[in-house]
Structures are given as C-alpha cells and as structure tokens.
Write a structure and sequence with these properties.
Helix content: 55-70%
Shape: globular
Number of helices: 10
Number of domains: 1
Strand order of the largest sheet: 1-3-2
Strand content: under 5%
Number of strands: 3
Length: 247
Amino acid sequence: MTSDMEHCAPAILSDWLKYHDLTPDLCTQILENAPAPGNPTLPRPHNKPVNLNPVDVWNTCGEAVIASMPESAAKVHHVLENATVEFSPDTARYPRAFTLHDNGRGLPYASCPWTGRGSDILMLAHEFGHALQIVACEGRDMPPVTREICAHLSEDWMLQHMQKQNRALIENLEKWAVYSAAKTLARDRKTLLAALDHPQATYNYQWNYPLARCLAWSLIKHQDPLDFWKLFRGKTNLSSLTSALYS
C-alpha cells in the first residue's frame, strides 16, 4: 500500500467517489463484472518457505514488469538503482508493507518485512508496483484506486513471469495468490458495498482494494491492448478504464 498521509485523503464516501469520478452504481458494476478470484471458503494453502534472497526477488519484480510493459524499462531500472527498500523493518512499529513517496532524496521508500515465505514474493511485487508508479507519474496526482491497480498489476505480472522462470515454486505460489485474493476481496468488497449506501460514511482506505483488484484482473484479461504505461504515469483516469472495459 502507499500512504494517504502524503496525499489529501478524502474525508467521506461522497468525496472519495468524486475524487475517482465514480458512482455507487459503477462501483457495484466493477465488483460484479470482475473475473472470479476463487472460493474464499477453500482451505488455507501452505505458505511455504522459499530459498530466495529478497534483493534478487525485488530485481525479478522489475524484470517481470519490463516483460509485460517494455516501455517502462528506463523507469524500472531507475527504481531498482535508486529507491530505498527495507527488508528488515522494525515489525513492532511497521508490521505491514508500505511504500512512501520520498526517502529524503525525492525517491520512493518501501518497507517490506521479508520472512522468507512464498507470500513475501507477492508483497515485494505489490510494493514494487507502487514504487514504479510513484517514479513514473512524476508528481502527477494519482487517486488511491489507480495506485492500487498498478500494484496489483505488478503482482499479476510477477506470477506470469515466474511461470516461465521458476516452475518449482509457481504452483504453490499461485494457490496462495488465489486464496489470498479471494479472502481479502470477500472482506473488502463487503466493507465497500456496505458504505455505498451512506454518502457521509467516514473514508476507509480499504475501499480502494476491491475496486483495484477487480479492475486489475479485468484489465489483464481484456481482449484489446491497453496502454498500461499510461496508467502508471498517471495519464489515465478510472472513467477511461471503465469505458474501455464495459462499453
């Protein structure tokens, strides 16, 4: 995730909808039309340890993005060479991964508590997507749903890349990805749908996740080529995306 503390976060649901150029009906349409992620009641798969170095995984995240979005190569290398990544943060203070816009040198700072489990691969891919969109948008405003779409696309591209690069690992990792997505989508979708009937509901960052997850899946599976790099650069809004997907 990225921190809304660095942005002017909306205060209530109606502000959040306006910021993203969304309506309650469009939110519902996005949630209902997304490809099925899997059954959230399935047993939890084993989150197996992986014998991988987090620095190598971070670099592989960059390779995966370039493989799916070649025009991003220069910015990807800029992130790999210059962003700050902390793989062993103080988990008592920072238990969850996050990415900030500025490490003090005008570049992203990613906090990624690496435990050596398969799920950590997806965590790094998610935060790499955030770091890249921060660098690529060059200061342009990017609403949180769009930021999270970029991060989820990075996860999906990492899975695709590893299907070709590490067959021994990918089967279990894909099972974990499906399980995790189904569980979190079921939870966050319920939270957002409950809020849509209450325009004055206090803003909750969790609202961004189900829309971003569903739109990322839909974009990956869309038949016509889409300009993902334009999205990462902050030059595509949600209206354009949803028009391309649902018109």
